Structure formats: C-alpha cells, structure tokens
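Tutorial sheet, problem 5. The two components below are modelled jointly, 556 residues in total.
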Amino acid sequence: MNFLSAEKLRLAHPDLEITATLPEGQFVALLGPNGIGKTTLLRTLIGEEKISSGSVKLFEKPIGELSTKVLSTIISYVPQDHEYPLHLRVVDLMRYAFLPTTGWFDKLPLADDSRIQQILKNFALASLEQRTLGSLSTGERQRAFLARACLQNPRCLLLDEPTNHLDPGGVTRFWAQLRETHARAGFSVLMSTHELSMVNQYCDWVLAIGREGVAYCGESSGFFRTNLAEALYSL
Amino acid sequence: MNSKKYFWVSGSLILIAVCLAFGAEPLQWSDIFAKGSATYRILWELRLPRLLFVILVGGSLAQLGGTYQILFRNPLAEPYILGISSAVVLGVVAGEAFFGVRVLSAGSVSLGFLFAAIATVLLVFISLHSGTKQVERIVLFGMGLNFVLSSVLFLILSFYNQHVGGGSLRWLFGNIPWISRGEVAWVYGLSSPLLGILYILGRPLDAISLGDGVARTLGFSPNKQRTWILILTSLLLSALVTYTGAIGFVGLVAPHVVQLLFRPSTSRTLFAFSFLLGAAFLALSDSLSRVLLPPFELPIGIVTTLIGGPAFLVLLWRRTQ
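Model answer (structure tokens):
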C-alpha cells in the first residue's frame, strides 16, 4: 500500500503542484529550500491547512474523508516549534500519548504502565522521568517529544525539522534513535530536514520539492548519485 | 495523594471551615443551634451563605484562570483577559449612571449578562473566523475589548460620578456582597454544571497544551473546542462578576501556585487543586477584610493582593534558591 499519494496537489500558500507516491514503511526525507512548502505540506496532512486543489491520500484514503479521530490512529506529529507546558513532567507527557485511545471519562494509563516504562528506556529518558519539560535541555526535550510521538504507535510519523536546535551530538543521537525505532516498529516516516549527510546515511527514500514542483521522488541512493541537491538548494 | 497534597487539601478545608468564625460580631458558641438567637442568625443566615458564595467565586476564578492559561498557552492569562468582565462592569455602571438601576438588583445582573453576551458573541465570531491563528486573534481582540470598554467606563465615571456613589464605585474594586440564600442557590445552580463541564474539558486542554497541530493528531479539534470553552467560561464569569465586580489576583496566581507546589499531571488535576486553593484563599481574604477594621469591610481585591502578592513572591523566591 502507498502511505502517501499526491495527485496535482496544490497547497494553501506556495504556488506549486505536487504529484508523488510514497510506499509505506519507508523512512522518507522531505527535502527542499526554506519557504518551498515543506511545513505547509506536513500541516496539510494533519488537517491544519486546507488544500487549494488536487488531492492527497494517506494509506489510500483521501485526506478530506479522514475524521480527526481516525487521523489520530494513523498519524503522530512532531512540529518544528513544539509547544509544551513548562511544569509538565516527562512521564506525564508520555501518558498524553494515550489521549487518542482513552475515553473522556476514563483515566489515562499510569506512570508505571509497561509501555510507558519501555519507551522511556528505549529513548534513554528513564532517569529524566520526573523532570519537568521546562528543566530539560533542548536535546532531551526533543527526545521526549519524539518518544511521545512514537508511543502513539502511529502508521506514519511526521516530523518537521526536529533537529533544528540541536548540537551535532544531539543531531546524531536523534537520527540514530529514530532509525532504530523505525526499524523496530516499521511505521512510515516523513521528515522534513536539511541534514543531507544524515539523509544519505539513514533514509530509504527522498521526496525533494523544488521551485518547479517535485524535483525527485524515489530511493535516497538515487538522489545522491545525481547533483540534484546542488540545484535544489541553489548551491 | 502524597503527604504534601494531603497537607494542603486538609489545610484548605480546615481554613474554609474556620472562616465561619470570622466576622465583625463575636459569636456565642453556646448559641449556634439556638434558633432565634443573634448567633444563630449571624452564622446560618449571613455567614454560611456568604462563605458558600466566596468558595464558589474563589474556586471558579482559580479554575477559569487555569483554563485560560492552558487554552491560550500563556502563563499570564487570567479570567479577565478577554474583556468579558469589562463588559459586565460597564453594563452595571451604565445601568446605575443612566437608568438608576441599583447594583446587585435583578436589573443590574441582567444588564451585566446582556453586555457580557454581546462581548461573547463578538469573541465567538472572531474565534470561528481565525483559522490557524485562533489563539492570537482571540487574545488580541480581548485586549482590545478591555481597552475600549475601560475607556468608556472611565468616561461614564468622570461625567456621572454624582450618580455613581457607594453603589457601583465600591463594587468596581471587587467586592463580596451580602447576598440572600436564594441568590446563592441560583448562582450555584448555574455555575455548578458549568464548572463540571469545564472540568471534563480538561481532557482536550491537555492535548491543546502541546500545540494545536499535535492536539489534532491526538484526536481533538482545537478550534471547535476552544470556541466552546470560550462560551462556557464567559457564561460562568458573567454569573460571578455581576455580583462581585472584578476581583483580581486569584485567577492569575492560584493556578501558578498549584503548578509550583504539585506539578499536576493533567489539566483536570490542576482545576481541582486550583478550585480548592482559590476557594480557601478567597475565604481567608474575605474573613480578613471584615475583621481587620470592623465594622468596615476592606475591598476584597485589595486584601487578596496585599496578602497574596507577597506570599506569591516568597514562593517564587524560594523556588529559585
């Protein structure tokens, strides 16, 4: 099944047309110069932005037909500037990953739930469990946001330049962690990024958006064999 | 609940109960069940309804403050941020100045609700037509409303100050009136379901606290839910402010104190603790306002700020050590 298929998709702001198909289960890098519409595309997929014309399907279902409830079982999202309550503890952020599946009159899973403890371990957050989000370093916080998104057990994970504010060590660790989780859980990943060396190392697939529309959509090895990157970023 | 929570919860409840003993008149404790005695009348017909009302106001303001702080993702948000209270105040003062409608009368309360309803409709319109910029648009519009309504209010006050005497002028500073048991009952009747629904709506607020985009992928509709919360909080606030005017401080600070002391894991927990702490704090302030310079009652807004302000600063100071 294809996880994403866009047909002559025109988004709310940038004026270009996107036609692309992404097979499921791949770790896809969304590349393109700033302002081209990467964030808009991601936000359109989660329903925050409207489609101008054309169509886009997630797992063969048109976006417009997916209710918020259904969407929450398919997608989890890590935005570029993630808002967060300063005093929220890491472990409680993990509990929020179960919001889609918990009834309004039921309690969220407790802190000692095995799934929560497992994800804290996988993401090396166990020692930070009781810390508040405001007291963490940026790298630790990004890791927590990623862990929460993975804990939702999505069919696809959307990330918008998640390593923007991280130091080189943080960047490497984030990519490695994401790759490891992807390998284990098998969900599709669509991540907008500028880190070409990391894309080369970790991503299976590249969707590159340029000023003419889709500049490349295919295996990442193919992308790096050409000089498309130079053209894309006007290097 | 751990021991710290037990301490604060039981402390608050005890404080609230003890407030019944505060007042301008000393009570004969042997007479508390003697019908017809002065003590009986003071305790059961005056102080208890008043205390119940104060609990509702203090608790509601605290819960409203917490709600807005999460809804708008802004630690400086408080119940009066959207201009609803300014609308109520304007309605009440205009009523007294132009039509001689006495403050706290049914007519005055109705005028307050009317003006608040108009402000709410405007806010809902903005809320429904803001797309992804809902938070900014609503907050900015509320700020604008506050400015405009305040200036109109001051204009009225400057021209009509001979008609606006001990009535609305005193009430403006924030005031706990001596209202009848019937009035307390009806305010509880209106407020309790609203507080209950707003408590339940703590669930979507948990998601909203992580950003509208994330909230959507957690299965909620932030824009729609924000509009509903706007309407419900507006109704609740109007019901209270028509009686008390704008009592400051509690709505802004109580949720922060709860955050600092308890680090509540969900919005619902925040609301529960905020309600309790807000109720206890206002009960204490009200008692002190009547006991410090009897029989004169200090305006409660002054007492809350004079006591709460330094206490809050001390709490913050110790946190930074």
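Marking note: Chain A has one domain: 2-25+34-40+47-187+201-215. Full credit if you identified this.
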